[in-house]
Amino acid sequence: MIGRIAVCSWSLRARSGAELATLAASCGITSIQLALDPLRRGGEIHGPDGVQAANWDLEETLASLSAAGVGVVSGMMACKGEDYTSLETIEHTGGVRLDSTWADNLVAARENAAIAKRLGLRLVTFHAGYLPGSKSDPERRVLIDRINAVVDCFAAVGAEVALETGQETAETLIGVLQEINRPDLGVNFDPANMILYGKGEPIAAMRALAPWIRQVHIKDAKPTKVPGTWGEEVRGGTGAVDWAAFVDVVRGLKDASGRARTIDLVIEREGGDQRVKDIVGAREMVEGLMR
């Protein structure tokens, strides 16, 4: 069952809670997925353009969003040291894979969990990093232990965790989820990431991962023409994702007892210079498919 239509806070490139509320309203959207790390740091944004001055005081952000009638559907945690320069660099640095940043990322998870509690969040998403497909790979056990440690941090405040898709195939992710086997760990399904990373056809992957899906991203992409390089992220509805089939899968998602599960649709746009226009276009596309 389809829930709320929301937008990722980082897609709007706001520098304060007040600006975020204004930008979300300009998109005709009253729900957001909120990046937690700017709130944890307070006064800066770390992004592809470097460190930018910002005002992310937690209480001021809460007040601004509340005054504007903007709700928070979930949180997002980024991991220290991630380098998205190329597929090769993110393979080595993504998520909780780096030994050199693991201690810092565990501290960040604890601090972000405290913020999630203050926000009353029930779901937080993050990229675990490239997960080895073979059970005999010793790094797989290390990453599983680290994922469990992060989930424990959020479980302590009553929040579930969803792993962002794309950096591994659906088959590999399913194997890891089955091995971990805990009800407070699921999937944030991003169809564009499957294309951008070249990890499988999105709808087939979505159907395979259906029992674990807790939230979805509305993001589109075109596959790369040069193997070993990124695909191209594009405005929703102009890429390779079959959105009609995507919405049909969301409508049919059920929990373990067979009851319809309510899934929020969160628009994400990470490229382009017309973010508000692109987000509005994605919202209108989804609303059209929901009729």
Mind explaining what this structure looks like?
It is a single chain. The chain has 291 residues and is of the alpha/beta class. Helices cover 42% and strands 20% of the residues. Strand 7 (160-164), helix 7 (170-180) and strand 8 form a beta-alpha-beta unit. Helix 1 packs parallel to helix 3 (58-67), helix 5 (99-119) packs parallel to helix 6 and helix 7 (170-180) runs parallel beside helix 9 (202-209). It has helices at 17-26, 37-41, 58-67, 87-93, 99-119, 138-155, 170-180, 191-196, 202-209, 243-251, 275-290, and strands at 2-8, 31-35, 44-47, 50-53, 71-76, 123-126, 160-164, 185-189, 213-218, 220-222, 232-234, 263-267. It contains 11 helices and 12 strands. The protein is globular and about 50 Å long. It has a single domain (2-290), classed as Divalent-metal-dependent TIM barrel enzymes (TIM Barrel). The model has no long low-confidence stretch (mean pLDDT 94). The strands form 3 sheets. The protein has an 8-stranded parallel β-barrel. It has a two-stranded antiparallel ribbon with strand order 3-4. It has a two-stranded antiparallel ribbon with strand order 10-11.
CATH topology: TIM Barrel
Number of strands: 12
pLDDT below 50 for ≥5 consecutive residues: which ranges? none
Distance between the termini: 13 Å
Report the top-level CATH class.
Answer: Alpha Beta
